[in-house]
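=== RUN LOG ===
request id: a7f3
mode: sequence -> structure
chains: 1
length: 454
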Amino acid sequence: MDFNMKKLASDAGIFFTRAVQFTEEKFGQAEKTELDAHFENLLARADSTKNWTEKILRQTEVLLQPNPSARVEELLYEKLDRKAPSRVTNGELLAQYMAEAAGELGPTTPYGKTLIKVAEAEKRLGAAERDFIHTASINFLTPLRNFLEGDWKTISKERRLLQNRRLDLDACKARLKKAKAAEAKATCEGDTVPDFQETRPRNYILSASASATLDDTSCPLSWAEWKEEYPGGWSPPCFFLLPLNPSVTRARGCLSLAKDRKLWNDEVDKAEQELRVAQTEFDRQAEVTRLLLEGISSTHVNHLRCLHEFVESQTTYYAQCYRHMLDLQKQLGSSQGAIFPGTFVGTTEPASPPLSSTSPTTAAATMPVGPSGAGLAPPGEAALRLEEVSPPASGTRKARVLYDYEAADSSELALLADELITVYSLPGMDPDWLIGERGNKKGKVPVTYLELLS
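=== RESULT ===
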């Protein structure tokens, strides 16, 4: 493998210079160009967005796939750009086991029949879970990953480039400051010789001849001797600091004051030009980075839309689960009524309906568990004359009405919230309904609207 040694040496020198600058800034020994408050707020907002997006992404993955080994496998397939194999959900696996158990234990027995019914419901639940995971991955997880792997990487790259531009700008400022300080020292007149050891910039060195002359203090020349040797108003000896510039290769000794000033004027002009170029590049890069950081607002809007879609898919999933389980409960309740005709249906308190911001009357009217009696009544029950029905000798209970209920027909009993009624069940009656009595009125009432009292 071929190595570019010049580039490697240049990169190493830049890295060392950056490390020195960061260290000096940390200890307050160097000036640092500060960004404006609005820019700092944009940086903080972008960092918060990135951190919380990562956390939400990881936790959503845990929600959709609790198995960590399965998540690692899916990640490997994604990195290899290959399609992950179809995975059986836990509900589908449970349904498979129940169906196999029913086939071995006897599909015609009560236990085997119940296993088959539950297996079918679990299979539907597993299919609904699969659809939910697929929809959530496309509509929610994919946009979050695209932001972290695309937009955020671009922002990070531009931020690093802006940091380098800032360091270059600070270096140019320090170089100009030291060049001006050295120029002021070089223009001194009289018998005072400037002390370049105190003002030498970090990237300047003293020439060999100048160092030797400054160190030779055994035979100093007087001002009269200098005037004889250099007539025409020569200044006392001034030894210049030479910048680490490849174009400057020879050491300088004592110069006249005019040449001395000209050299330092050239150095100051060069430093000022470099500063202007560095400032222009820094401003341009700061503008590019600022535009990218302001794009975080549009990212929030996109993530908000994805979040709404995730909630919609999750709501659909839970609604399907509720519907499947309600159908299973009805099937199991009907079979219990057939096997145990004397069983009282309302021995356990029904689950409270979902909380809603609407009024109880509106919630009762929109709840899926309270359809009209004509749709749920078994064959022959619609012709039942309630006025001829007498309560059983045992099995009546008191119940408190939870919500208002408006009767759908004459066979049902209208209810008011918080009133007390007497309820009982009849053999072969739908388990979701009871016979309710209030004074001289009698009719069918839904179980989910009642709180059975002991």
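=== NOTES ===
Confidence is low (pLDDT under 50) at residues 189-221, 232-255, 335-383.
Residues 95 and 125 are 9 Å apart (CA to CA).
=== END ===
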